[in-house]
Amino acid sequence: MRTFWIGLPVALFIGILTGVCIARPVALFLVVPLLALFIYNGLQKVPAKPPHKAILVFLGRRLKIVLNEGWNFLPIYPFVFDFVLIKVEKVNYDLEPQEVRTPDRAVISVKASVTWIPGIQGSPESYIDYLNSGGEEGVRKIIHDVIEDRTKTWAGSNREGPSTWMEAQVLKDDAHEVLVKSLLGGTLIPIGNPIPTNTWMRFFDSPQSEPTAYDTARRPGQTPWAFKDGATGDWNWSGLQAIYDGYSPADQSELKRKVDQRIDDVRKMREGKGEFGDKSLGITIVRFSVNDIKVTGEVARAAELEEKERRERDADTMELDNVSARIRKLRKENRGMSLEEAIRTVQIERGKISKSVIEVLGASTGLGQDFLGALGFQKMPGGGNVPAGNPAGKKGGKKNRGDYTDDDIGGMIDDLGGNP
Questions:
Q1: pLDDT tens digits for 153-202?
Q2: Cβ atoms within 10 Å of 361's Cβ, excluding its own
Q3: How far is the CA of 60 from the CAs of 83, 84, 292, in angstroms?
Q4: β partners of residue 84
Q5: Of 352, 344, 333, 346, whose CA–CA distance to 377 is shortest?
Q6: In terms of pTM, does the model score above 0.70?
Q7: Which ranges of 281-388 does DSSP label H, i.e. alpha helix?
């Protein structure tokens, strides 16, 4: 077809010149320059750096003919033949974070990116579809709108999406599958099952993945598809297993084949190894990735504060464990050292109290009614240390220096933990 469109005017032009030369040999001196100009004007180059392809244009109409990079001959350019350049290098597009609400009304931010190449292998008309979509900028806007709309639907649906913001943060695989399907449409093999595809993907995973709240929901007349085994604490998928066992062997095999193919397709897209044509846009999508799902707004600040407090509690627990271990080590290495002396030494090492304070309190003359007594602490009969002067603390009086045991360490450290 391409040979016909380009060869016909070439043959006509050369035929006319040949006829003129035969009729009037003297015209040869005029024909040769015209022929050279004709050839020179028709040689047009499609750039290779960056890589390009071109759509052939005949009398202003785009043809389903693709010109490859390099030199091409276009007779009577640009009046009869012309071309439209299309840059065909990979386009990496980082979508703006999509802020959407989960069913618990929390706001989450979903960040994704996509890589595509203009055109589809073996489909010349796909380049026209790409141009009709607005080229690179037009495709960007369309992809943005598709992903934005589908992300909102996914986040707000606890059937295929999360039930809470906490669940949303662990469902990146689900988001991948749903958004890939929205981009590729009919390109992916349809599963054709009423149960969500992501649920089957978790079921067929090895080992089986943790179910979502939707997977564990109770349904009239059915046991939950999955539930936590009270004895072992493991997730049990026997409910969905019973549904799967009710299918015929042929249906079971076909369902598993389709789900495995979907898992493989999503994996290829995530790894940048895909070659999936989007006919509506005229592009080949090679990668799609949900990079991050995180909660935002007031819920994010509350979660951050809670996490900070948890870390501080863990740090305090670890610090007390280390202090207790240090105290025990000191007493083991120094058999005559009392518990109070060991605590005093460790607190000085930690910088919680200074040596000068200890000396003022009488540490230089033995313990001066013992270390804890000098600091004003008395031992309560029921356990724990309280400041002197508290009427409730007078009952039972103070312990002597050697009466404290290792079981008293935690309470003493709490009392002595702050700076004096």
A1: 888 887 778 888 888 888 888 888 888 888 887 788 889 899 999 999 99
A2: 19
A3: 9, 11, 46
A4: 55
A5: 344
A6: no
A7: 297-333, 339-350, 355-360, 371-374
